[in-house]
Amino acid sequence: MDNKRVTRRARIALALAGGTALTAVVAQIPANATAGQAAPHRAASAAQHASRSAGTADGTSYDDTYYKDAEGKTGKALKDALHRIISSTQTGKLTYDQVWDALKETDQDPDNSGNVILLYTGRSQSKDANGGNPDDWNREHVWAKSHGDFGTDTGPGTDIHHLRPEDVSVNSIRGNKDFDNGGTKVDEAPGNNTDDDSFEPRDAVKGDVARMILYMAVRYDGGDGFADLEPNDNVDNGTQPHIGRLSVLKKWSEQDPPDTFEKHRNQVIFDKYQHNRNPFIDHPEWVGEIW
């Protein structure tokens, strides 16, 4: 999760590992998140940079199985290979109503099984406090559904790789804005900023946001009856099937590498719901090899 820090013992172990591909989980200390309290920025661990082997928090690798057809590729060839992999293996597709229960599991607070962690606020909130009231949580489309006009139809509108729990009023403030740095602070969500045409999430989830956007660009390429989603380097994209800024999203992915919470979420979606993976969580270096 975004509020866990690598222990000194783990750092020593990593130093001793010296260049070996790491598959063990790095020991981490949780910090309790409570309702109304934003989770602190996570520390990027050496383990997250030391290994290029795609794997889960328990050390399971998918390079020789799930990603075997993508290995050794770069650029468009890599993007095309990943599209074939993540679209052909997405055998589970949810309705918009089913998303509620899925998010209660994918975004469960590891320190409180009755709560979920809200994406932008970082608040731990009761799973049952979902709905349409200002302090409830609802279903945030990180790739705004108006960018490509896919709505809440089964497909991009219900793909839980980019749907996250969020406070209703903060979700409304984000609206369908593109992502960029700057703006004025969002009072209800400390660490987030916004202006007329963009939204900047808190540091602890900047990379998460970037990898969700880039997953969508690979997964939805104009097939399935939906628009070809592509990031660009603009803001104020309106209803066009684009979200920016790509240059900023790439930096966010580098600055905020995948953590235990994000990896676990990817695994739950793979095991129990859609049966496909976000390749940029498993291989964050592929961001720079495609874009």
From TrEMBL:
InterPro entries: Endonuclease-I, His-Me_finger_sf, TAT_signal. Coiled coil: none annotated. PROSITE patterns: TAT. Residues 40-55 have a biased composition (Low complexity). Keywords: Hydrolase, Nuclease, Signal. Residues 175-188 have a biased composition (Basic and acidic residues). GO terms for molecular function: hydrolase activity; nuclease activity. Residues 40-62, 147-200 are annotated as: Disordered. Residues 1-27 form the signal peptide. Transmembrane segments: none annotated. The keyword Nuclease applies. Pfam families: Endonuclease_1. This is Ribonuclease. It comes from Streptomyces lydicamycinicus.
